[in-house]
Structures are given as structure tokens and as C-alpha cells.
Design a protein that fits this description.
By secondary structure, the protein is mainly α. It is built from nine helices and two strands, in the order ααααβααβααα. It has one domain: Up-down Bundle (Four Helix Bundle (Hemerythrin (Met), subunit A)). α1 runs parallel beside α3, α5 runs antiparallel to α6 and α5 crosses α9. It starts with 8 loop residues before the first helix and ends in a 7-residue tail after the last helix.
Length: 258
């Protein structure tokens, strides 16, 4: 019986390459080649973006593709960065280090499960919680460009361990939070017309990251994280003030009430 090859094979192939890149990153981590492991995780992110583009291009989106994509993301952006963190640093802290290193993988899996459940009616402009690829890129870019190099200017040598731990816990919690983060804009004329500022900022970020050979990735991702947090706080304050104004207005009768 001949094997039937459908259009859905194309995006699934990119998803499989995403998963393989994550696995290969773990192999490189065991060999102590953390820079190579970091770039393999970034490569996994490229394949992750391309599989969705291929699914739309071939009109072969399916529940199978969504589930396969999530499984690949758990490996490439959850398990691989977590294992890399453990091999590069957290193994020094023994049991506590195991628990801290596991947090990105655990919270990332929870984040993806929540996303899949809420996929119907999903707001395409925002994610609820920090996306797992963004979390992975933030952690690994900090690790290889700022934590591991002895001559890095940030953070101070005496605070490196604490910053690594705080960053790992903080990013893990952001993944399972309800803070909204902007989706990555597609490089198209339509996306630019709809979100000109966001699309321009994203494209400039890519150029800066490429020009600095990846060293600017962590500062750029840190800005992305902070922007989401600050916007969330502003929305909460505005909502609380609006609720208080409505309560005050509702407690006092006015001549316009019917």
C-alpha cells in the first residue's frame, strides 16, 4: 500500500527540526559547548516560526500540528534551556539547583497547556503570559553573554549567582502569569499597516541582534519583559481608578438618573 504524503507534512517537518534542534542543544550542553547550545535553541525558534508560516501557506493547519508544535516547544524551549542552566551553573547548588533549573521547563509546560486549552478565541495580538520561546531566549542569552564570561560588565562579579537565580524564578513565573505580551508581528505589508510601531521595533531589534552577534538579545528581551509588566501595572491602576469613580458616581443620586 503506497504511503500518502499530504501537505501537512511540510509544517510538521519544520516542527520536527525545531524538536531536533532542542535535543541537539542538550547534547551540546553535556559537552560544555554552551554557546553552540544557545544558538541551537535560537535556531529552534526560527523553525518554530517557520512551521506556522508553512501551515498557513499550505493551508494545512490542524489539531495534530498544534499538539506536535507544543510537544516540540516543551523540549526546545523548556527542557533544553533548563538542562543548559543546570549544566552551566545550577549543578553547583545540588538539590536546590535541580529545583531552580527545572522551573523553566515546568512553568513552560503549564504555559503551553493553558495556551492549547484557550486556543479557541485566542487574541492574535497578545499572549497571556510570557511565551515560552521568549523566556528561553532571555535566559540563554543572559547565561552565555553575561553570566558565564568572566569579563562581562553586568552584573557585578559578586552578584552573578543571585541574579541568575532571580532571573530564572522571575521568568518562570512570568510564563504562568496573566500579563499580556505582544505577539511577534509577521514581516508583511499588512502587519506593518496594522501595527507600524510594533513591526518596526521588531525589525530593528532583529537588525541590532544580528549586528551585535547576539549580545544585544538579552537587553532587548529585558525591555520586552519590562514593557509587558509596566503596561500591566498601568492597566491595573487605571481599572481600579475607573471602578472607584463608578462607585462614587453610583452612590450619589444625580438629577440625570431616571
Amino acid at each position: 500500500m503506497p504511503i500518502r504524503v499530504t501537505r501537512s507534512v511540510i509544517p510538521s517537518l519544520f516542527t520536527s527540526m525545531n524538536l531536533f534542534s532542542g535535543f541537539f542543544a542538550m547534547v551540546k550542553s553535556t559537552e560544555g559547548e554552551f554557546m553552540a547550545a544557545a544558538w541551537l535553541i535560537v535556531l529552534a525558534g526560527v523553525f518554530d516560526a517557520l512551521d506556522g508560516a508553512m501551515a498557513r501557506l499550505t493551508k494545512s493547519s490542524s489539531e495534530f500540528g498544534v499538539e506536535l508544535d507544543s510537544l516540540a516547544d516543551v523540549v526546545s524551549f523548556g527542557a533544553a534551556p533548563a538542562f543548559m542552566l543546570y549544566m552551566a551553573f545550577f549543578h553547583k547548588w545540588e538539590t536546590v539547583g535541580v529545583l531552580l533549573a527545572a522551573l523553566p521547563a515546568i512553568c513552560g509546560a503549564i504555559r503551553l497547556a493553558r495556551f492549547n486549552v484557550q486556543l479557541t478565541g485566542f487574541d492574535k495580538d497578545y499572549f497571556m503570559g510570557l511565551p515560552i520561546p521568549s523566556a528561553a531566549v532571555t535566559l540563554i542569552s543572559y547565561l552565555v553573554f553575561f553570566h558565564l564570561p568572566a569579563d562581562s560588565y553586568f552584573p557585578p562579579a559578586g552578584m552573578k549567582d543571585e541574579v541568575m537565580a532571580i532571573l530564572t524564578v522571575g521568568i518562570s513565573l512570568l510564563m504562568v502569569s496573566t500579563i499580556r505580551y505582544d505577539t511577534i508581528p509577521k514581516p508583511s505589508k499588512r502587519a506593518f499597516q496594522k501595527h507600524p510601531i510594533k513591526t518596526t521595533a521588531f525589525m530593528l531589534g532583529l537588525v541590532v541582534a544580528a549586528a551585535t552577534k547576539g549580545e544585544a538579545l538579552f537587553p532587548l528581551m529585558a525591555l520586552y519583559l519590562l514593557y509587558g509588566i509596566i503596561r500591566h501595572i498601568v492597566i491595573l491602576i487605571r481599572t481600579r481608578n475607573d471602578d472607584e469613580d463608578d462607585t462614587m458616581e453610583g452612590s450619589e443620586p444625580t438629577p440625570f438618573d431616571i
